[in-house]
């Protein structure tokens, strides 16, 4: 798991800002000492069967503690894995998935598994004592997109600081709700 996380922390823009949580050179020390089990805590997850690929997608919460104490784990991340029909993990696999960009444009993208998922969340690496940042308790369902394909929808709990109410009007129908997101990294 650390071998997956380290390159993402160094090279993936969705993770580089999380590097301070892991302290300089701590991850290589954990690998060398073979103490990953005392710093990373993986919880049960949620899964869906992806019929188009013939595999299970499993998403689990992983907590990290510098001190090796589960109750002092200030950050959680979501870890995605692929399993075959017999629940044997398939590693180093790429799935071609249809993604949607910010303007609604569709394109195909290869996603490699296992991987930590780029889920935005509020965090402040200067305040770690009695703080818990990141997604928790992931749940997953399949939803049918506008192209008639089933795709996983992941829902999780997390502390957010940027919540906005909205009202949307389409013809005579008015609906409302809450949007969580925005520039979460720069919120106090």
TrEMBL record:
Pfam families: BMT (PF12141)
Keyword Cell wall biogenesis/degradation: yes
Protein topology in the membrane: Single-pass type II membrane protein
Subcellular location: Membrane
InterPro entries cross-referenced by the UniProt entry: BMT1
Keywords: Cell wall biogenesis/degradation, Glycosyltransferase, Membrane, Signal-anchor, Transferase, Transmembrane, Transmembrane helix
Family: Belongs to the BMT family.
Protein name per Swiss-Prot or TrEMBL: Uncharacterized protein
